[in-house]
Amino acid sequence: MNVMTKEPKISERFDLDDIRKIREYNASRYRNMTPAEIVADTKAGAAELLEIMQKRKLEKMR
What we know:
Layout: H1 16-30, H2 35-61
């Protein structure tokens, strides 16, 4: 398996190859983490995404 250390470059199309790159990247990041660390990392990413979505929603309402 190819070990990825850098964030993958995602294409404008966001196709299956991009999803594969993201999965491989996350697998390499999570390899040495405990399940609790993985959950914490996922929640942190989700919180960041929710914040971005909330800002966009507020911008649309203006």
